[in-house]
Amino acid sequence: MKSITYILLFLWVMVLLPSCKVEPKPIKVGTDACSFCKMGVADKRFGAELITRKGKVYKFDDLHCLLEFTKTDGVRHEDIDEMYLVNYEKPHGFIALQNAFLFKSEGFKSPMGSNIAAFQTKKQLEAATQSKQGSVVQVASLIPFHK
Questions:
Q1: Which of 5, 27, 60, 130 is 20 to 30 A from 92, comparing alpha carbons?
Q2: Residue-wise DSSP of 115-127
């Protein structure tokens, strides 16, 4: 009987663990403030989020602020669980940083001047390169410590 209890407890814990993963929270333009520069989020196309292993969510108004935040004592690199960028094509959606296709163009005019947009697919990235002058940016060149 004791072993059945342990097995059931183990199974229950295994079912609950995956559900504990914190997902990005929608960024509310005009309400949320950037965790780095403290300015209000003004453009829904350029936000970013950093989620720690403990589930704390930091919101940013631009990739620039996320990058600068990772250089501060705000959070240790080993405590970062995931980083997300707002999908430029669908501003209420997020793309995990390591899966994003990035394009830098002065034509984007992001809030803090990174002027880098994140795209979900290579096809969307290629469409952006056809309509704007700029350059493709590699994620590893921005945040080399990230997984």
A1: 130
A2: -EEEESSHHHHHH
pLDDT in tens, 13-50: 454 454 567 889 999 999 999 999 999 999 999 999 99
Residue 5 lies in a domain: no
Separation CA 25–CA 49 (nearest Å): 8
Q: How many domains are contained in the chain?
A: 1
Displacement of CA 10 from its chain's centroid (Å) = 32
Q: Dump pLDDT digits (tens) for 94-133.
A: 999 999 999 999 999 999 989 999 999 999 999 999 988 9
Against a cut of 0.85, is the pTM above it?
Answer: no
DSSP, res 33:
B
Residue 9 lies in a domain: no
> Cα separation of 25 and 144, whole Å?
25
- The answer to the question of residue 79 being in a domain is yes
Strands 116-119 and 101-104: antiparallel
